[in-house]
Structure prediction request, 907 residues.
Amino acid sequence: MSRALLLLVGCSATLLVFGLWIPFKALVAQEMLELAWAESQARQSEARPWPWADTWPVAKLDIPEQGVSMIVLEGVHGESLAFGPGRVPGSEGPGAPVVLAGHRDTHFRHLQHLEPGDAVRLQGMDRQWRRYQVTATRVVDSSRESLDTRSLARDTLVLITCYPFDSLDASGTLRYVVEAKPAYGMEQIDTVAAL
Amino acid sequence: MMLLSLLANPVVRPECHHPSLKPLLSTRARRNMIRCAEGISLWLAMVLMLFVHPLYAEARAMESEQPGQLYLVDRKSAWQEPALVLDSRFDVQVTGLLAQTHLTRTFRNTSDVWQEGLFVFPLPEQASVYGLTMTVGERRIVGQLQPRAQARQNYEKAKRAGQKAATVEQNRPNLFTSRIANIAPGEEVTVEVQYQQPVNYRHGEFELRLPTTLTPRYMPGAPVSTPASAWQSGWSLPTTQVADADEISPFTVLPDDVNPGSHRATIQLDIEAGLPVDEVTSPSHPLQVKLEGSRATVAPEQGKILMDRDVIVRWRPADNRAPTAALFRQQWQGEDFLMAMVMPPSTTGQVLRRELLFVIDTSGSMAGESIRQARSALLRGLDTLRPGDRFNVIQFNSQAHALYTQPVPANGHYLARARDYVQDLTADGGTEMAGALSLAMGMDGSESSGHVQQMVFMTDGAVGNESALFDQIRTGLGNRRLFTVAIGSAPNMHFLREAARWGRGQYTAVHSAAEVDKALGKLFAAMEAPVMTDVEVQWPGTVAQPVPAKPGDLFHGQPLVQVVRGSPAEGELTVSGRLPGGRSWRTSLDLASAAPGKGLDRQWARGRIDAVMDSARLAGTEPDEAAIVELSLRHGVMSPFTSFVAIEERVSRPEGESLNQEAVPTLLPAGSQPGMLRYPQTATFGPLLTALGLVGLMFSLAIVMLSRRQSL
Prediction:
């Protein structure tokens, strides 16, 4: 009896630890990424946060209303999304729409509170902060619709995460998409970093 | 916040748990322990509630649909499967050089609302559509050919009135749209399209291609509509260069995304070859073949096939029986039609020094199996270069890039570098073909005097601006000849065939990696030199408008095919031309030996429609719409300006019922990668694992508490 109970407790605790490990890793990794981001900004080159990483910081995303900021990584494979939001490959390059994707249960859970008109800031490798304003949010079915970046206006920022936010199903087909347009005339240079 | 509170949880847990597992002596301590356990389980229950609550919340949230949502979610909050299930059946009858196909599509409405189905589908690039029949239960409604706008108007009217209606429109010579209005819940509507296509005869082998899906096409140019409407649809937007982009870009899904059993096709071929057939093969599907002399009955071995690649069937006449000429005759509405096929002699001329430009498509649509095939095709092409030849390699996606700034001699050093370059090619980005063409056509060939200039273009042809590209090829190519190689399991054969025609070259298709050598070998052999130039065809008496009016140069293994109207099957047909080296060649055929044929009138009409379109392109004007509509209506063959429409008299949809529209997706061609356009997976198993762990812990706590109570 007590052995079976012990087993049950052990299994449940393991599950719980594994479940909590994911948000924990997401939190801790961001701290390490901060260092790598500072380094890549200083050197103006890709800096891997740890030697065996297959991704690297490419930008910093800031949502002032939510009081959160996070380092954006290259690629949207499982490896990069575990540590931070990822930039969809192919959306780099000057003027191209920037498409970022993140896990709805870790970094991008804040997206649910974003509303049209909210501000989002994105810092590139050049230390320049670009201000965006959320213009629309919507839900799409990824099994029926693909993301055509070419149909987006240039300079658009698109944030993607899974939907619904509180679902336990990790393989659902719905996605929550936030579109933001640049808010011109409000750019500012991170003077502290420039010093 | 919830996650943070959970983070604290494991820290609390062990403290209270460890004592609980040890035998305790004092009752006071035991009571304390129970109190602690009760507190924790209550706490855990509350946390669990927080997790379970979203499951209800989710169901509730889904009922209030936001505008702009594209999917249907029912009240049970289950993701609804596509409402329309599609089943196709190809019944192909081959007689000599023409194949008639009855393509039957069944749309089944699995939802509980009335549906309008919209389906964009490919047909063979030389298909002439000549019939549409809609079947609802026992009722058969035969479609009529009408001018396009009128047909569309009639269809919309019937749709609004609640009548069943079906229409087929032509978007591209090989791309059509079918609409079916007012399919009742649970009902099946069958739409049969009848079309014919010429059988491809080359190198002593007959080939028939039945496309079942299309490679998503790239639409160059900037979107013309406002971004606001961009949110409404997953389809491409009209661009400055492709005005109908939104009509020719059906959503492409993986086979797993459609209903099980949907997007399957039954295929049945009856071949009457007219001469003994030796073998029937297919590079795309394993076949079940029944051979009886000149007749063959063919079906795919596995029965229903997935509609994710072109079906290709080839048959070969018995040894030494490969025809060098064929004649067919037909009377239609009192008029005589004749079709002639003449094979030029297979001679080879002197070996010329060549300047070869290899242009390879490395756009996103080529990702996967296609780019591997293209790479090996290109490497095979580099192998055919001889000392004295010159070459260059150009790759293009969103931009074009040339390996060398100008063509270089085919010596060891340059070839080795080119092989390395080709091996490293990867597929990504857009398909800006115009840039690649102008880069290739602008290559300075001043050092190449005395060289024959040729271009080999390897692509899947997945672009929406075919017409502009043909113009560019026609005007900019100069002395060069353009040869095209179709890559992938569902290439845009219309583009590849027409590009080669305007480029005065030839096209070939690679269907699998194993076939690269064979297909390319034939193409490069043909490229050595045209076998026959200045082709003249002399029909007895005066014939009106043969098609094609002016046969182009013929390459090795390629026959001359011409259809004429108004010439009875008597007298002699003379074909003459110039062979390599300047010798002239001439042959005569006795027209009285013509065999009866079928569909020659439609073949002629389609050829005339193409000729009218061509002359407009040459003159740089809009095509003569009235002439095409007249030709099309007279011969019952669909054209870009005419559509078929079938409308049932009786009204089936009650007035109060609303009508939903659903676009039936097409399948992603086999071997190609979904590319960057798919939404990434953006959820973790974290919450699920946490919830399961919490449930387990609560359960064990409850057991512990129960056993403690009992022992007290």
Chain B touches chain A through 67 residues (CB under 8 Å).
